[in-house]
Every structure is written in C-alpha cells, then in structure tokens.
Amino acid sequence: MMKFKSHIFALFFLVLSITISCIHSTPVGLSTRCVKDLSNVRGILITSPVSGHNYEFGDEIEIIIHPDPSVKVIYELNLQIAAERTVYVFERNITLTPPGQEYYVLKYNLPKKGEYNLTDDARYHIGIFDSEGEFIAASGTFNIGCPKFGLTMLSPPVNQTYHPGDEICVTWSDKFDLYQDIKAIIHLFYYNEKNEISEPPLDVFVDYELSKGEATIKVPDFPNHRNYVIIIGFNRTSDIDGTVDGKPQVVLEHYIANTFNIVSGCTDAY
User: Fold this and answer.
1) CATH number 2.60.40.1930 given to 2-262
2) Which of 59-63, 122-126, 158-162, 195-199 bottoms out in mean pLDDT, i.e. has the lowest?
3) SS3 sequence, the chain?
C-alpha cells in the first residue's frame, strides 16, 4: 500500500512541477486579451472530449463542436485510433440545427468492449469529415478501457485561441514509464478542406526527449484557422497492436493535445 501511495504522490508532484514550469509561457486567456468575432475563421474546433480523459466501453460521450457558420452538415462523425484508422462511425449526414449556433453538443454511446474489435487503448480520438473522404477536424486523444500504455496529454487547455508570437505550453505525463528513453517529433498543423495537411505544416521539434514532459511552442505566423493540432509522434516496438510470429511490432504512436484556433491580429472580425 505504501509503495502504491508513493507512486501516486510522485505522479502528483510531477504534474505540479510541469504546470508551474509552464505557467509563465501560457498566454492570458482570450477573453482578457481582446474580444473577437471568429465567424470568418474556417474550420471546426472540438472542445469535448478533453485530451487524456478516461472512458469505459459503453459510456456516453459528449462531443462539443464549434463550427464556422458555413458548416451546415457534417458528413461523418467517427471514432479513430490516432495514426491508424477509423474504428467506429457514430453518425453520418448530421444537420446542425438550428443553424448558426456558436457550438453544438452531440451525445452518443461508445461501443461495448469487443464490438468492432475495439480494445483498451490510449490513442482514441474523435474525427470529423465534412464530405466523403475529406477529414477536417480531430479532438485530443483519450483513453477507453484500461490501457497499460500511452502518453496523457495535459495541456494546452480546451477552447483556446492563440496569436502569432504567443507561446503554447504543451505538457504530458508518462504514467507507465514506457517512454523515458524515446525521442519524438512534435507536429503543428491543421487539416484543410482538401483533406490535406495544411500548408504550414511544421515539425516544431525533431528527436525531442519525451522524458522532459513538456515543450514550449512559439506560434508561427500561420493562416487563421480553427482546430490546429499538436501531435507527438514516434515509433516504438510493442505488442499493443498484436504480434507477428509471436514478436512485438514497430508501432507508430500519435498523441494529440487539445486542439485550438490560431488567429492573427486583434480586430472584431477576420
């Protein structure tokens, strides 16, 4: 029991120390900086589920989206494993009513364990397609079940709007101590309307040591858009996707922080 408690306290102080070290690099919230009309900023921001959240199979999941006013219908809302595949479709051809709302709350039940070959995993995320084959938005990654692997993305918080020059503090925890010797690429981009990674895209860091638990990203002068994503990606030899001839495979793992908007300037409309 004492050993278990010591691990809990160690994790608590790790998260606390990461939060304190990043507090000076996190920009002041949008509401205190300036009031903005985001109606002309394209894309769909997802603010729920929150990255790192824990769900059980069969749980109700609340999906909150903030679309630009041009989005009237969502072609497909689905559940994905980051960097791998769509594993379940919640609904297709969703008409957003009444039109023009700032956000919409959609509720569904997750599949039960074993359905659709779903297993405990830390890489699940929500995906949105605005037409057939055109991926436009993602949520942060979250857990379903009790996976014994995975990074937990802790920050940035949800529903943020940043400006070029702002600093974003990205933090994560490695509660299973599986990634302390791994180096990763940290990406920053958005998905455009042609189902392509946006024209930035930016590999902010290459060969970044995951043992650091945090990274500070200075926002470049990127196009105005909702649902920018920060992804931590790396290859790791493991059996999380099964084995080949009884041997672990090299698996590409992606973990996504809470997504956010990037907007230039401080005027009333963009």
Assistant:
1) yes
2) 195-199
3) CHHHHHHHHHHHHHHHHHHHHHHHHCCCCHHHHCCCCCCCCCCEEEEECCCCCEECCCCEEEEEEEECCCCCEEEEEEEEECCCEEEEEEEEEEECCCCCCCCEEEEEECCCCCHHHCCCEEEEEEEEEEECCEEEEECCCEEECCCCCCCEEEECCCCCEECCCCEEEEEEECCCCCCCCCEEEEEEECECCCCCECCCCEEEEEEEEHHHCEEEEECCCCCCEEEEEEEEEEEEEEEEEEEECCEEEEEEEEEECCCEEECCCCCCCC
